[in-house]
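Customer escalation, tier 2.

The customer says the design service returned an amino acid string that "doesn't look like it belongs to this structure." They asked us to rerun it and document both sides in this ticket. The original structure tokens are below, unchanged.
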């Protein structure tokens, strides 16, 4: 038998697979040996997806063969890892984050509007003359004793962005909606009512991946103004709400690697529970009203199970999942009442606070490739949230006669340069 020696530069082998070498009829044969896609994974979530994809290697026909052939054509670790990232359900982990960011802005603005109405002398907790929530005893914009109803309408815009290299996808989101409601004065210093509205969200992610959400919003809210303390104008106040939203999502998840270019579509639905309570103290000096405030918001979002379509064997069947947020806020706010004439006042205001996320801990989203044959279910683990935020803003209120108040508010929330949100809020309220 004749043997020959080969040096390492006698031939070239490309690709990341293991190979067997054999000689037959004086020919050197190199045979690719499939071991596991997990050898190319860099994170626990990528390992989970790669392990589920191992089942595709057993396919002898159909779309799973097409997918495995496309995977086997990749030549670098980075290409495999990019493909794994597109196949996991990471986009769905952004749904709670977006919902919590939106409701934080909307609830904060509801409470801010009530406070501005109190400063303007138009709060439902106020009565004419000696109300603890009025700026002074002879305020020409004070409420009449026989006025009990205060309807309102609010329009809002929420603009958020996240840049993350972790398990939360990078996105830019635009959110807008309208809320209308009414409050009724049950006691001289207590008012309660309800609200309902519509909220639309569009989020764009890397590539052509996108999400739309049409949500119906509803709830109850109340405001109480305490008796004056320490002076004849200072007072404590308490606001609260409980409500929820029904979400209808439409998600397009793009998958592009090798010669694969597909879009998986899903229409998940979600239910949200909202609650918030705020306590504050008003200090009045001349035309100034200022003081500290603290609040606690709890929000729960549950998303039902759903199946994707449009990406053949790369469609995911996703189990139900949920997440909760508890946001603590501590800060202060101030306003200055400028009486233009007896029927009109301008009230510029500003606020600043620290917010801390107490919940929204990592959770799992269980998924499986749903078509083309049996598939191992895999778990996607969400990332831990950023915990601390700065929340601040400015605004202006306009008190018109004894019956109308309009406010325009802007706020920004930021944890760092990679996660930020801006909110614009316009409100009008009447009194009769």
């Amino acid at each position: 038998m004749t043997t020959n020696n080969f040096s390492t530069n006698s031939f070239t082998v490309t690709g990341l697979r293991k190979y067997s070498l054999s000689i037959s009829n004086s020919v050197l044969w190199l045979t690719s040996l499939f071991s596991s896609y997990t050898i190319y994974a860099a994170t626990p979530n990528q390992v989970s997806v790669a392990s589920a994809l191992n089942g595709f290697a057993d396919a002898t026909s159909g779309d799973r063969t097409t997918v495995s052939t496309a995977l086997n054509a990749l030549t670098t670790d980075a290409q495999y890892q990019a493909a794994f990232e597109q196949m996991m359900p990471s986009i769905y982990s952004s749904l709670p984050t977006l919902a919590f960011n939106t409701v934080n802005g909307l609830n904060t603005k509801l409470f801010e509007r009530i406070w501005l109405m109190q400063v303007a002398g138009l709060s439902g907790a106020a009565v004419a003359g000696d109300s603890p929530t009025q700026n002074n005893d002879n305020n020409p914009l004070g409420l009449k004793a026989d006025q009990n109803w205060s309807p309102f309408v609010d329009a809002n815009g929420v603009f958020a962005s996240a840049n993350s290299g972790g398990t939360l996808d990078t996105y830019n989101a635009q959110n807008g909606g309208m809320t209308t409601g009414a409050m009724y004065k049950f006691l001289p210093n207590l008012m309660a009512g309800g609200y309902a509205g519509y909220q639309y969200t569009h989020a764009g992610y890397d590539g052509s991946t996108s999400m739309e959400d049409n949500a119906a919003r509803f709830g109850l809210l109340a405001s109480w103004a305490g008796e004056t303390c320490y002076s004849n104008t200072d007072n404590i106040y308490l606001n609260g709400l409980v409500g929820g939203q029904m979400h209808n999502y439409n998600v397009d998840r793009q998958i592009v690697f090798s010669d694969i270019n597909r879009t998986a579509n899903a229409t998940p639905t979600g239910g949200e529970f909202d609650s918030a309570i705020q306590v504050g103290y008003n200090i009045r000096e001349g035309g100034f009203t200022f003081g500290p405030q603290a609040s606690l918001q709890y929000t729960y979002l549950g998303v039902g199970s759903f199946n994707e379509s449009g990406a053949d064997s790369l469609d995911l069947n996703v189990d139900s999942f949920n997440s909760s947020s508890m946001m603590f806020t501590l800060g202060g706010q101030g306003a200055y009442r400028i009486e233009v004439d007896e029927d009109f006042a301008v009230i510029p205001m500003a606020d600043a606070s620290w917010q801390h996320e107490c919940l929204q801990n990592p959770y799992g989203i269980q998924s499986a490739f749903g078509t083309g044959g049996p598939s191992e279910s895999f778990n996607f683990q969400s990332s831990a949230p950023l915990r601390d935020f700065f929340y601040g803003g400015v605004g202006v209120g306009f008190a018109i006669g004894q019956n109308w108040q309009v406010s325009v508010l802007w706020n920004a929330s930021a944890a760092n340069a990679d996660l930020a949100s801006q909110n614009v809020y316009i409100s009008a309220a009447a009194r009769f």
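Tier 2 assessment: The sequence is consistent with the input. Helices lie at 44-53, 63-72, 77-87, 94-119. The CA atoms of residues 52 and 298 lie 36 Å apart. Sent an explanation to the customer and offered a walkthrough call.
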